[in-house]
Design brief:
By secondary structure, this protein is an alpha/beta fold. 24% of the residues lie in helices and 25% in strands. It has helices spanning 14-23, 71-82, 108-118, 132-135, 151-167, 212-215, 244-250; strands at 2-6, 28-34, 53-57, 63-67, 89-96, 123-129, 136-138, 144-146, 175-181, 190-191, 199-204, 230-235, 255-259.
């Protein structure tokens, strides 16, 4: 089996190495990913513009390719240019953050998997939800860092790919969206449906006292421009039973959502 792995966090993000390590005993693995972070870019494609592709080396010494484009670009380049044979499966991730609900269409991770399906390749988008209560830790010098514990995510991803190799994709399923909590209470995977939404979005400006630290955090060259606003998201706290959000954030267990890229509403026959 030949597997292409990409992501939206960038080729040197720890999650893509974890994804490779999870499945490299099951298949031939090729890694092609953006050269920098491309979170929340959706399915953006770079058409009729030059892209730079470079060979690079992951932390374990293995070969990978970086692309100066989006996650969807990286999947196209990997499948149609880098690999000698068409991949049997595309894995996107392991994303460092949550990707659930109908908001997944903004996710570079999930939309890279959508792009794989458009190329005729089944896909798995996989994300690690890092609970801020347990994922942020201090070292002996008091410095804060993020503890990326991919242990359970790698195990679930490995078992899922093994099952796909053995049984194939279920009929009518184009891709799986897998989310695993870092602070889990159960390792048992639950098959779920998409929640209505993941994020409540607000627009703030420099008059917002409550979020002034976020607004004034140095991010861009135009930070001192007067007419600046910012969209800030808050994670939704309530989810319906059976949904990906409920499994991940309430039951604190891995959520596996089977998806089909055909978004046609079949119920409307006459209007």
């Amino acid at each position: 089996m030949n597997i292409l792995i990409s992501n939206d966090d960038g080729v040197f993000a720890p999650g893509i190495l974890a994804a490779k390590q999870a499945v490299e005993d099951l298949a031939n693995v090729t890694v092609v990913a953006p050269d920098r972070n491309n979170s929340s870019v959706g399915r953006r494609l770079t058409l009729f513009k030059h892209l730079k592709i470079d060979k690079c080396e992951l932390e374990d010494g293995s070969e990978a390719y970086s692309v100066s484009g989006s996650p969807a670009d990286s999947v196209v380049v990997g499948a149609n240019y880098v690999m000698d044979v068409k991949p049997d499966l595309v894995i996107t991730g392991i994303n460092q953050g949550v990707n659930i609900s109908c908001d997944i269409t903004s996710s570079g991770t999930v939309c890279a998997a959508f792009e794989a399906v458009s190329l005729g390749i089944p896909a798995i988008a996989v994300s690690l939800f890092m609970d801020p209560k347990t994922s942020y830790k201090q070292d002996e010098n008091g410095e804060w860092h993020i503890d990326y514990d991919f242990t359970l995510t790698k195990k679930v991803l490995h078992d899922l790919v093994f099952k796909i190799i053995d049984e194939g994709f279920p009929k009518g399923v184009d891709l799986f969206n897998l989310n695993v909590p870092s602070n889990y209470e159960s390792e048992e995977v639950k098959i779920t449906n998409l929640s209505h939404k993941m994020l409540d979005k607000q627009v703030i400006d420099n008059t917002d006292i409550e979020k002034k630290d976020i607004f004034n955090y140095p991010l861009n060259d135009n930070q001192n421009d007067e007419d600046l606003i910012m969209i800030t998201p808050d994670l939704v706290k309530e989810y319906e039973k059976g949904s990906d959000g409920y499994a991940l954030l309430v039951e604190k267990r891995p959520s596996l959502t089977p998806l089909n890229v055909n978004m046609t509403s079949e119920s409307l026959k006459d209007w």
